[in-house]
Request: fold
Amino acid sequence: MNAPVADPAAAPTGPSGEGAIVVLDKLSVGFGDRTVLNGIDLALRPREIFGIVGETGAGKSVLARAIIGLLPPGGDVTGGAVRYRGRPLDAFSPAEAGSYRGGKVALIGTNAKALLDPVARVGDQIARVVRAHTPMDARAARTRAIDLMREVGIVEPERRARAYPHELSGGMAQRIVIAMALAGNPEVLLADDATLGLDATVQAQVLESLVERSRDRGLSVLLITHDLGIVRHYCDRVAVIRDGRLVEEGPVGDFMAAPATGYSRDLLDAARARPALQAPLAAGDRPPLVDVRDLTMHFAVPGSVLPIKAVDGISFAIAPGETLALVGESGSGKTTAGQCLMRLIDNTDGRIFFDGRDVTDLKDRAFRPLRRHMQMVFQEPYVALNPRWRVADLLAEPLALVEPMTAAERARRVAELLALVHLDPRLADVRPHALTAGEQKRVGIARALATRPRFIVFDEPTTALDIRVRAQIIDLIRGLQSSMNLSALFITHDLNSVRSLAHRVAVMHLGKIVEQGDTEAIFERAEHPYTRKLLAAELPVDAEPAAAAP
Amino acid sequence: MASARSSRSVFARPGLVIGLGLLALQFIAIVFAPWIAPFPPTEANPLDSLQPPNAVHWLGTDEIGMDIFSRIVFATRVNLLIGFAAVALSLGVGVPVGLLVGYYRGLPSALVMRFFDFIQSFPVFVLGMALVAVLGQEIWSVVIVLCMLFVPMFARIVRAEVLSLRERPFIAAARCSGAGDFAIMFRHILPNAMTPVIVQVSVSIGMAILLTAGLSFIGAGVRLPSPEWGLMVSSGAQQMILGIWWIALFPGLAIVLSVLSFALLSDEAKRYVDTGRGGRAR
Reply:
C-alpha cells in the first residue's frame, strides 16, 4: 500500500527537503494575542499521503487554511512562511495567488452539503470551478464536470449532474466537493476532516476513491483527521499536532509500532478497543429486565400511502447487568427504537416489557414513576441540555422522581453525581455552553444516573468526540457497568466502542435486526452480508492495512 | 470581560444612546409634568387662542387657547400609559396562550388560531371605531383595541418558537427526567421562547403610541380636552390650511420622536440577542 517515493531528492526529511511541493518553515499563526500554530516545520513531498492528527483546537484546520493562503478573519502569519515549490506564499501576486488556490492546492472541507450552493445544480457548480481555472465554453466545461463526477465514483453522472445538493446523500455531496477540488487539476489536496459525520461504509468508500484518484493522478494529499484508523489505512507519513505545536512526525508504520512521545502513545492507546467485558453470570437463567417484542414504528408520510418503516418488527431482550449494542448506520432506525423504549414516541405496534410489566400502553403520567428506573443519555450532548439551565439544576431535575429532598440534600447529591462522572464540582454553576463536548456528554450521563436507574439507553455516547475524550467516556461507562450492575442498550455505529462495552450485539438495517449474537461471535463470525460489510468498513488502529484493502 | 465590553459599547452605539436619551426625556416628562409645564394642560384661555410660538407660549396655543407645550408634556403620560398598558396586558395574555397553543396541537388550539385569524382580518381602525362605539371614548377602550391587535401577535410569535423548541432533544431529555407538561412548558420552553418576544415588546410600544394617535385622529380614541398627541394633531389639521402650522406640527414631532426611541431600542435589543449574549438555544 505504501507508495514508492519516486523522487530521490525527496528522500531526506526536514523542512527544507528538496523536491517537496509544499514546505512549512517554522510557520506560526496567531489570532490577536493567541498563538494557534507555533513554529510548525513540515514538508509535503510529491505523491505522498500525509496524515495530520490532532484533537479539537490543536490547530489542524488553521494549518490547512494557512497552506491555501486563506486564514480565517483575524488570523495572521506571525512567523515563518509557507513555501510552494520554494517560493513563499506572500511573494505571490494576487493573480498568482488566485491560480494557486484551487489550481495548485485545493481544499476539501467537512460537511459537504453546507459547502455547496443550495440553489444551483451540482453539475453546474463543478463546471463553474472548471471554467474558473481553464477558459472553455460552457458545453465543454459541462462535459468535463461529468467526467470528473465519473472519476470520483458517481454512478450515472449525467443524471446526477442535474441534481440539487439537497437531493444528494452526504457521501454523494462529499464526492461532488472532491470533484470540485480536482477540477482545477491541483497538485496538492488538503482534506480537512473530509469524511467527518459520514457513515462508516460511506466513509470508507469516499476515502478509498479519494486516495485512489490521488494515486492515479500523482497528487500529494494532506489528510487532516482525528481518526487514527484513517491514518493507519491510507497515509504514508503522519504528523501529530497538539496545541499548535508539532509533537511528532514520521512514517506511519514506525509511528503505529512505536510512537516516540507520550502524547502519541496516549492517543494510540485511547483509539484501541478495551479488552472484552465479562458477560454477566448466568444471564440466560434470569428473566430479562427489558423485553421488546416485534417493536414497530411506522411514520405516516403526508401525501403517500406507504408509511416510513423506521422500525419494522424488532425483538430483543436485555438481562439485568447486561449491555446490548444496537449497531447500524444512520437511518437504520436504531435511535427511533431507543425513543420508543423510553416512551418518547408511541410505537405503532409491538410490546415493550420492563421488569416483567407491559409498559407499552401506559400514559405519560402512569409511566413517570418508572422513569427513575429507565433513563436515556442523548446523542448530541449540547442540544440535549437546556441552554438556560445551570448544570446543578439540570442534574437536580430528575431527583424529583425519587423522593422529596431538601435543598442541601439535593446539592450534596449533585456534587456526588459530578464526582461520579469525574467532573469538577465547580462546574455546577455554569451553563452548558461553557462546557466542552466531553464535559457536556458527562453531564448528560450524570443526569441519567441521578435516579440510580437499572436500565439506561445510551444513544451514540462516543460520536463526535476527540480520541482521548471518547476513551474516557468509554472507561466511564465501563466503570458504571461493573459498579452499578447496570443494564444498557447501547446505540451506536462506532464498532470499536461496541467491542469495549457490549456483551451482545444486534445489527440493525433498514428497520430490521438482521443479526444478533454475542459480541465475540458477531465480530469473529458474522453471517449476514450487511454485518460483514459494516465490519469491513471499520478502520481499526491495530489491523494490518493489507487486510482492509480490497 | 463581557461587562467591560458592554460598558464600552454603550457609548459606541449612537442608536442606543439616542434611544435611551429620548426614553429618559419621556420619563422625565411623565414624572415631572406639573413642574415642567408652564400652564395646566386643559386650561382654555379663549383670549389667547391661536397664538404662534412666543416667549409665553413656547410652542403657541390652539384654537381655544390651550398651551401646546404643556399639553404635549402632559400627553406623554396618556400616550405612554396606553402603550405600556396595552403591551403589558397583551404579553400577559398572548404569551401563555401562544405557549399552550404551540404545545398542545389539538382541535382547541386550531380553533384559537382561527379565532386570531378572525380578529386580525378586521382593519384596526374599523375595529377601533366599533369598540369605541360600544364601550365609550375612554382610555381603556383604546387599550382594549390595541390588545386585540397585540395578543394574536405575541401569541403567534411564542407559538412559532414553541413549535420548533418542543421537538428539540432537551425537551425529550426533560421528559425522561420526569418533567411533566407544565414544567416542560413553563420551565424549559418558555425561557427559551422569550427572546423574540422581548425584541417585539419595544417595537409594539412604538406601534401602540402610533396607533393611539391614529385612533384619536379619526375620533375613535381619547376625548377632548384630554391631552393626547393624536388628538392634538387632529384638531391642528383643520387649521393647517389656514397657515396655522404649530398646532399640528409639534405634537406630530412628539409622536415621531417617541416612536423613534422605541424603534431604536428594539433594534438594539435585537442586536443584543443576535450576538448570542443571551445564551440562546440555537
Observations:
- The first helix of chain A runs from residue 60 to 68.
- Chain A has a mean pLDDT of 86.
- Chain A has three domains: 47-70+96-271, 274-373+455-550, 384-452.
- Residues 62 and 251 of chain A are 23 Å apart (CA to CA).
